[in-house]
Amino acid sequence: FNIAFMNFALFVVHEVRVRSILMSGPVLCVLRTTARPFSAIARRAQPQHRFAAGTRNPVHAPSAQLWTSTRSRSESGPAASKMASPHSDPEYPGTATTRLTNAVVRARDLSFDDLSQDWEHVRRKILHAGGLKDLPDARPGEGYTGHAFNDWNHCDLTTMSDGTSNNENDGAVAGIAVGNALGKGIQVASDPTLGPGGSWSTCIMGCHHEPPKDVAHVQFRSKIAFKLVWCPPDYTSFVLVDDAGKLLASGTPTGKIPPLIERKENFRATGDGRYSNAAKEHQKPA
């Protein structure tokens, strides 16, 4: 009787454990379970390991056969980010490399005409290129992107991995508040269709140094997909340049563009660094 009771109890505990695992995550499973006596399970030298789809977390199922299918998702933690983008950047390991590549492609595809319309339309195109949603009514810190590319400073489009999106400034970025927690806003505002990781319009302050000492490169240890720089001498046109400072796109928007003082300060912040060259050389199409 004792042996029979132990077999029954073990089977019940195993069933509850497996079902709780299957119901706890974003994995759709079909389960086929066969009861085995305690002695048969005890003889198994090594448990079978099957990985829950999209993770590196093993599901131990010694007496179950699982068939899994996953829901499509883009932000499922550091493990999923590494799986989707296996080639990390050795210099800036916080970069979401696949997301960065896609953002650069989108930005390069923007024509001069695309970026020479009403400023609000242009700004939305820039947000979309970088994988950011237009959320002008969200609360600051909770996904608000109305400031993005609308002042002198928040003009870097940074694509950071899931594992670094919660990084805070420890004081290494001069002029930026200690902390500078952006993780929640990044999660809410990032467009998942661009690739794993997140996007944000980070501060360009410090980009005139070589290497850059701005929020992207220091706080998030990430390259930028692109930077918006207003062009002298009249500051009515802007360029989008990549992490190396190479020209991706340019435009001369109309309507209510940022104030002149903001546009001048934006260019001044690039100093004589890599990000000022394309703006200095910019010429409007005839």
Could you explain how this protein is built, in words?
This protein is of the alpha+beta class. It has nine helices and nine strands. The strands form three sheets. A five-stranded antiparallel beta sheet has the order 6-5-7-8-9. The protein has a two-stranded antiparallel sheet with strand order 1-4. A hairpin with a 7-residue loop joins β7 and β8. The longest helix is centred in the N-terminal third of the chain and has 23 residues. It is globular. About 32% of the residues have low confidence.
Summarize the entry for a quick read.
With 286 residues, the chain is an alpha+beta fold. The chain is 30% helix and 16% strand.
Relevant terms:
5-stranded antiparallel sheet, two-stranded antiparallel ribbon, 9 helices, globular, 286 residues, alpha+beta, 16% strand, 9 strands
**Order of strands in the sheet with most strands:** 6-5-7-8-9
What is the end-to-end distance?
Answer: 94 Å
Q: How much strand? A: 15-25%
The tally of beta strands, per DSSP, is 9
Report low-confidence residues grouped into runs of 5 or more. Answer: 8-86, 168-174, 176-180
Global mean pLDDT: 74
Share in helix: 25-40%
N-to-C series of helices and strands? HEHEEEHHHEHEHEEEHH
Structural class: alpha+beta
What is the alpha-carbon Rg in Å? 25 Å
Counted by DSSP, the helix tally is 9
Largest sheet report: 5 strands, antiparallel
Query: What form results from the Cα inertia axes?
Result: globular
Tell me the quaternary state: single chain
Please write out the topology:
Layout: H1 2-24, E1 27-33, H2 38-42, E2 49-51, E3 58-60, E4 64-70, H3 78-84, H4 97-108, H5 119-129, E5 156-160, H6 183-189, E6 198-202, H7 215-219, E7 224-230, E8 238-241, E9 247-251, H8 260-269, H9 277-281
Antiparallel strand pairs: 1-4, 2-3, 5-6, 5-7, 7-8, 8-9
